[in-house]
Amino acid sequence: MPRDDRVFSVLVACPSDVQEEAQLVRGAVEEVNLGMASLQSARLEVVDWQTHASPGIGSDAQDVINRQLPGDYDIFLGVMWARFGTATPRAGSGTEEEFERALTRHQENPGAVRGIVPFDVELREWRPLVSSTSRSCYATSAIILSGGPGRPEH
Predict the structure, then answer these.
(1) I need a labelling partner for 97 at 20 to 30 A (CA). Which of 79, 83, 125, 152 fits?
(2) Considering its fold, how many domains does the chain have in total?
(3) In the prediction, which pLDDT does 154 show?
(4) At what angle do helices 94-108 and 61-68 cross, to 10 degrees?
(5) If we measure between CA atoms, which residue out of 67, 41, 42, 71 comes closest to residue 54?
(6) Confidence of residue 126 (pLDDT cuts 50, 70, 90)
(7) Which residues pair with 118 in a beta bridge?
């Protein structure tokens, strides 16, 4: 018999040095969907540039990604490590740009994005954003998962 599940989409934004962690997020979402989600008539769907964007023409690569990623995701999950990512004409990196878009959407409609959660582990490149007065929202929106100098074991 068909079911009517609620689908919560999770936008995963990350630079290239955390692809293994992004894959772990996908695996965790699969586990949630196989377990608890079926009992709650709800499931999670990962949205990211690898699954929801394809080559195209734009002013730059992030512009192409921005136009293709759905804008109606429910949760923003930023996964960061030591790299901030590649700069775009609009931001310090594509990851920052995706975070800014999610934050703007959340500020305009607080119910639109249910979570603004960038992971922060030893981000030398991100420190200027956190210390900037115009960007103080980053510091209050972050969850520190691990602060050690080495990469956590999985």
Answers:
(1) 152
(2) 1
(3) 39
(4) 40
(5) 67
(6) very low
(7) 78
| pTM of the entire predicted model | 0.72
Lowest average pLDDT, out of 23-32, 54-63, 128-137, goes to 128-137
Place of tokens 């990604």: 65
52-82 b/e (C-beta count within 10 Å ≥ 16 → b): bbeeeeeeeebbbbbeebeeebbbbbbbbbe
Residue 67 belongs to some domain of the structure: yes
**pLDDT digit string (tens) for 77-118?**
888 777 778 899 999 889 889 988 888 888 888 777 765 554
C-alpha R_g of the chain:
16
CATH at 62: 3.40.50
- Distances, alpha carbon 63 to alpha carbons 53, 60, 80, 131, in Å: 11, 5, 21, 27
- Are 77 and 10 contacting, i.e. CB atoms less than 8 angstroms apart? yes
Residue 37 lies in a domain: yes
Task: Specify if 64 maps to a domain.
Answer: yes
Tell me the residue range of the domain where 31 lies: 6-141
